[in-house]
Amino acid sequence: MTVTVGHVGLNVTDLARSTAFYQRVFEFEVLDGDDRYSFLGVGGTLLVTLWQQSVGTFAADRPGLHHLAFQVPDLESVRRAESVLRALGVEPLHDGIVPHGEGATSGGLFFTDPDGIRLEIYTPSIEGITTAAPDADAPTCGFF
User: Fold this and answer.
1) ∠ Cα 86 67 26 (to 5°)
2) Is the domain 1-53 a CATH 3.30.720.120 member?
3) Contact 42, 27 (CB under 8 A)
4) What is the dihedral of CA 144, 98, 72, 27, to 10 degrees?
5) CB-based contacts of 100, cutoff 8 Å, min separation 6
6) Pick the CATH number of 66-144 from 3.40.50.2000, 3.50.50.60, 1.20.1070.10, 3.10.180.10
7) What does the pLDDT look like over 66-118, one tens digit per residue?
8) Taking all residues of the chain, what is their mean pLDDT, rounded to a whole number?
9) Where does residue 2 rank: exposed (0-12), middle (13-18), buried (19+ CB within 10 A)?
10) From the CA atom positions of the chain, what is the Rg in Å?
11) Is residue 55 a contact partner of residue 14, using CB atoms and an 8 Å limit?
């Protein structure tokens, strides 16, 4: 059997706010939706669905989603996302763009969405980034 991820569905508390956030940060287009949900994607391909059916904030200490990672083609794309996030007042976790681990050539940016859902934008090559991995003994995406 060959399997790929079709899309990821996220519960949000404020659909309009979350839709605007994901559109701005990831340059997603709204493929479908109403006042209860948004189907978001790129080039007509569905990637994320947002469902307004929750209260509170993301609970990182409960079983379930750890984080959602999006791969982009190059470091410049990660840098653009970092600029957008900072303009929105979102401070990246760690020290901005960081490697996936000590000595890793891949890495990215770790942050949370308006509901506290942990997100990552990464690229296979972060050549030119000199920031050390946040934890020399563990994968960066594992503990944030």
Assistant:
1) 45
2) yes
3) yes
4) 70
5) 106, 107, 108, 122, 133, 139, 140, 141
6) 3.10.180.10
7) 999 999 999 999 999 999 999 999 999 998 999 999 999 999 999 999 999 99
8) 95
9) exposed
10) 15
11) no
Q: And the tokens for 36?
A: 């209860």
Among residues 55, 25, 30, which one has the least CA distance to residue 42?
Answer: 30
| pLDDT, tens digit (0-9, with 9 covering 90-100), for 8-47 | 999 999 999 999 999 999 999 999 999 999 999 999 999 9
Q: Where are the domains of the chain?
A: 1-53, 66-144
For the record, the structure tokens of 101 come out as 């681990």
